[in-house]
Predict the structure of 7,8-dihydroneopterin aldolase.
Amino acid sequence: MGTIALEGLEFFAYHGVYAEEQKIGNRYQIDIQITTDFSEAADTDNLKDTVNYGDLYEIISGVMQIKAKLLEHIAQLIISSVRERYPKIDKVEVAVSKFNPPIGGVCSRAKITLVG
């Protein structure tokens, strides 16, 4: 058993509850960690026996293009999409951060973490 992670993936997207957020957009950061059995990949040294970083990035990039109101929804879409591509993985943990959220005060970012 092991983990694979991509950290600090940044995207500009149009998510948010407020119409203004969906119009002007914002910066988002995604962190993903996957727990799975890497023993076959460790033995074979073959990319097909593991989780491909490039695939993960493409999955996340695609999800980030879908407008959503909630960070929780974005995280769930990422988890579902990763599990569809890699059904044998044990656990997916996704953190979604929104920079400078519109909360009426100073906040560098809002962040949610979802495990699926």
Remarks:
- The chain has one domain: 2-115.
